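As a warm-up, study this chain.
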Amino acid sequence: MHLNELTDEVEAISERYARKLGFERDAAWFLLKLNEEVGELNQAFLMKTGQARTKGKSAAELGRDFRDEVADVVCQALLLARFHGIDLEAAIADKWLVRCPDRSPRHGGS
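Now compare it with the structure written out below.
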């Protein structure tokens, strides 16, 4: 699956969620929601690494929670980029992959 296809699927889920709960996903919402998910990822990391109460969860549950929160952060980042019209595949190629010695930049990024 390509990143754009994944973003389309995540967008459909997010849009349905917003419609069901009756709120508008505006620029502030996308950024604040990402921030919320990063906070939840921080909490899951602290619990997984024994730096916060585990609330009786097993190591497997803590690992699953951490994995799920990483997925939430990635999905919210995809949604934020889409809202702002950012082609993430191009942006990643320009910002990160340009550093690969065997790869030339797609858009001359830095």
